[in-house]
Write a structure and sequence with these properties.
The chain is an alpha+beta fold. It contains 15 helices and twelve strands. The strands form three sheets. Strands 2-1-4-3-5 form a five-stranded antiparallel beta sheet. It has a four-stranded antiparallel beta sheet with strand order 9-10-11-12, covered by helices on one side. It has a three-stranded mixed beta sheet with strand order 6-7-8, with helices on both faces. Helix 5 links the parallel strand 7 and strand 8. It starts with 8 loop residues before the first helix and ends in a 22-residue tail after the last helix. This is Regulatory iron-sulfur-containing complex subunit RicT. Pfam families: PSP1 (PF04468). It comes from Capnocytophaga gingivalis.
């Protein structure tokens, strides 16, 4: 929106770009009531996530993204305006800063080109300054980690941010750095969470970590938050870049606590005639609880929350339940589950299991029979006596010897003192059967090109005599 032919603050902030801990000024497009003056304090952001409040004494027309020269204890500093208007009053009240205090620092002017050039020159030295300061700290044997360095806008002071387990005596280090860098030195100890917020990084979700983008307050995070959310207490997964528990664990904790109000406690025990059952697992989203009998911890019994409440009410009346098996619901068979998954077009698991190829033996036998009949008919058409061959092939009947084997007449007595032969005894062959045996030989029309195999003549070995 545009008032008085001037663009809104949010449009300028959008063109300026997304910055750390940026706040959306939703009051920028709303004009002030008649006779009311704009709030004279401004929020200014410096390197990384450091923000401070300054008083606009000269009533400069400042907007989000403007570079300004601000008052410091010695000299001046260069920063970027991050918020203006009535929202600054709310932010100061939230951070408990008195907006009527006479000691509130002031804004001198808008930064000139010369101010910005000097500020950029000193910002370019910060990386080399940090590396050299770490070497000096290691030479003195100090147990500290210098994580960041920030030069003042005019270059008169350098602030070193460090982390340490306890107190560090860095008096000698300050003397060495003042002699080395020829500037005023200030040391500030910060926590591991503040260090991660200043340096930034990419989290496990693939996005920038929340403490460096929008999170302003660091609430304490305990392992109880992970237990309520049914997460495994694995420090590698629960810890962030700061080495502490992730701040994300507190984001959904309230929803889990609200859902768990309707659940029975996990230490409840159910009295049954089979024995006492204790809770082993809880599924908050499906509202399910798993119980096991004492002494039989292998078999788990799944119950709903309503069923558990029903059993507890009966136990209060000193009426034990016969068994938990009566309350178990019938689960879907794996075949039904697969069909339901395959019915969903967007299912992610539809390509996990490969379909098994089932061989249908009946179809194969029928195919083989048809191929054999077709081969016989083709060969029969080529031969002159095709009609006879077709009849003999069709009239061919396999003799059924099962009935003969079952009857004593069909059996032949074995010869005495002789081992039985593995091959079946040859029977008398009729003329029709001879034709049947001759018929397949007619099918092989091609003459074999192979030469007959001749055995080599064995010569007698020469005698030694």
């Amino acid at each position: 929106m545009i008032y008085n032919d001037e663009p809104s603050h949010n449009k300028i902030a959008y063109n300026y770009g997304s910055v750390k801990l940026s706040v959306y000024d939703w009051l920028s497009d709303i004009p002030l009531p008649a006779g009311q003056e704009a709030f004279d304090c401004v929020e200014v952001r410096f390197k990384n996530s450091r923000k401070e409040f300054f008083r606009n004494v000269h009533k400069l027309p400042l907007q989000i993204g403007d570079m300004v020269a601000t008052e410091t204890i010695s000299g001046h500093d260069i920063g970027t305006v991050s918020l203006t208007g009535e929202l600054v009053r709310i932010q100061m009240k939230k951070k408990k800063v008195d907006d009527k205090s006479p000691t509130l620092p002031k804004i001198y002017r808008k930064a000139t080109e010369r101010d910005i050039e000097i500020w950029k020159e000193h910002r370019a030295k910060e990386e080399a300054l940090q590396k050299r300061s770490r070497e000096l700290a290691i030479a003195l044997g100090l147990e500290m980690k210098i994580s960041d360095v920030e030069y003042q806008g005019d270059g008169s002071k350098a602030t070193f941010y460090y982390t340490a387990e306890g107190r560090v005596d860095f008096r000698q280090l300050i003397k060495d750095m003042a002699k080395e860098f020829s500037t005023r030195i200030e040391m500030r100890q910060i926590g591991y969470r503040q260090e991660a917020a200043r340096l930034g990084g990419i989290g496990s979700s693939g996005r920038e970590i929340s403490c460096s983008t929008w999170l302003t307050e660091f609430r304490s995070v305990t392992t109880a938050a992970a237990r309520y959310q049914q997460l495994s207490l694995n420090p590698q997964k629960l810890a962030g870049q700061c080495g502490k528990l992730k701040c994300d664990l507190n984001f959904e904790l309230d929803c889990y606590l609200e859902a768990l109000r309707d659940f029975p406690r996990t230490d409840t025990k159910l009295l049954t005639e089979k024995g006492i059952a204790s809770c082993q697992k809880v599924d908050i989203f499906k509202r399910l609880m798993w119980f096991t009998y004492e002494g039989d911890f292998i078999n788990w019994h799944k119950l709903t929350v309503d069923q558990v409440k029903e059993i507890l009410e009966l136990n209060k009346q000193k009426q034990p339940v016969p068994s938990l098996e009566e309350y178990i619901q019938e689960e879907d068979t794996p075949e039904n589950a697969l069909t339901s998954e395959n019915a969903q077009e967007g299912s992610l698991t539809r390509f996990d299991e490969k379909p098994k190829k089932r061989k249908n033996k009946k179809k194969q036998t029928s195919k083989n029979a048809t191929t054999a009949d077709s081969a016989i008919t083709e060969v029969a058409e080529q031969t002159p006596n095709s009609e006879k061959i077709e009849k003999t092939a069709k009239d061919k009947v396999v003799p059924d010897t099962r009935e003969k084997k079952g009857t004593p007449e069909g059996r032949k007595p074995r010869p005495e003192n002789k081992k039985p032969f593995n091959n079946a005894p040859q029977k008398a062959i009729n003329t029709s059967q001879k034709q049947e045996k001759v018929a397949p030989q007619v099918t092989n029309l091609k003459k074999s090109t192979r030469k007959p195999f001749k055995k080599p003549n064995k010569t007698a070995p020469k005698s030694d005599e």
